[in-house]
């Protein structure tokens, strides 16, 4: 599939703020099965300076320095992306064997299992999640089968409720409420997998949405999406699983970045000097071209 993606973010402030430092994580990383062209980024007003930063995870960060008084900032990221269906491994190691493989890997690069084995800022260890996940993640289970069973349980037991949580909601709180959005479901799954020694990462990206029968696709009504990448051993590598939709990732998923949790790959964040509240309005359009 080939898509054109347009992502417009407007940050606004009730009163001017100063010395804003804004991080953008909107440009997709190089990822197997994806081929991007015509990437374009529009920023208004233009910052005093910009700096590309790479890593430490699988993420492209553009750091903006806006020294002048700022009442609003508009950022438009757009690109065309070809996405090929990933190859699904037919066999993956048992969870016991995978734990041993993960600990034996000596690399510490952004795609190595080590950075995604342990608790992180927004994905702390939670005993209740570990206990709940135990029936899916038995030691002799193939890791991919166990992870898919876990995603299926999240899909069935949790309610998708926009507005029920925020970007700062912990996996523990989302788990207790049994409701949330894609970010919450991904982070609950990550905490569960890491509890059993399975490397798990948070992936931000886009998902093609299909309108109901008889309805036209609404331009700008899409949104960013989140799912989980599970390390399934040296041979299989990272495999994407979408617990919000109970499926493996495929041609409808466009990867932008991968980190330990949402904080590593947040599309827009930063700091400023001032007392005004920041508000952000986002419009996303994922349009298939073939």
UniProtKB/TrEMBL annotation:
Q: Which residues form the Transglutaminase-like domain?
A: 174-245
Concerning Gene3D superfamilies, the annotation shows:
3.10.620.30
Q: Which stretches are transmembrane?
A: none
* Identification of the protein by name: Transglutaminase family protein
Q: Which organism was this protein described from?
A: Croceibacterium xixiisoli
InterPro entries referenced in this protein's UniProt entry, alphabetically: Bac_transglu_N, Papain-like_cys_pep_sf, Transglutaminase-like
Q: Which domain of life is it from?
A: Bacteria
Q: What is the lineage of its organism?
A: Bacteria, Pseudomonadati, Pseudomonadota, Alphaproteobacteria, Sphingomonadales
């Amino acid at each position: 599939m080939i898509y054109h993606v347009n992502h417009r973010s407007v940050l606004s402030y009730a009163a001017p703020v100063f010395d804003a430092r804004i991080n953008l994580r909107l440009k997709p990383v190089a990822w197997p099965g994806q081929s991007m062209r015509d990437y374009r980024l529009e920023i208004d007003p233009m910052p005093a300076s910009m700096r590309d930063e790479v890593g430490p995870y699988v993420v492209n960060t553009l750091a903006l320095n806006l020294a002048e008084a700022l009442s609003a900032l508009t950022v438009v990221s757009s690109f065309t992306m070809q996405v090929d269906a990933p190859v699904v491994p037919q066999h993956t190691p048992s969870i016991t064997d995978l734990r041993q493989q993960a600990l034996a890997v000596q690399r510490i690069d952004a795609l190595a299992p080590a950075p995604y084995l342990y608790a992180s800022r927004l994905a702390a260890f939670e005993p209740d999640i570990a206990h709940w996940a135990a029936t899916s993640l038995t030691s002799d289970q193939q890791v991919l089968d166990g992870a898919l069973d876990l995603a299926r349980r999240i899909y069935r037991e949790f309610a998708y409720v926009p507005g029920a949580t925020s970007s700062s909601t912990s996996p523990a709180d989302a788990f207790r409420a049994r409701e949330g959005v894609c970010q919450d479901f991904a982070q609950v799954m990550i905490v569960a997998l890491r509890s059993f020694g399975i490397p798990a990462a948070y992936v931000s990206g886009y998902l093609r949405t299909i309108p109901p029968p008889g309805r036209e696709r609404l331009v700008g009504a899409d949104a960013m999406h989140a799912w989980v990448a599970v390390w399934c051993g040296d041979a299989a590598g990272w495999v994407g699983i979408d617990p919000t939709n109970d499926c493996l990732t495929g041609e409808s998923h466009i990867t932008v970045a991968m980190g330990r949790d949402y904080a590593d790959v947040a599309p827009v964040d930063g700091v400023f000097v001032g007392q005004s509240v920041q508000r952000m309005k986002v419009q996303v359009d994922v349009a298939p071209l073939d």
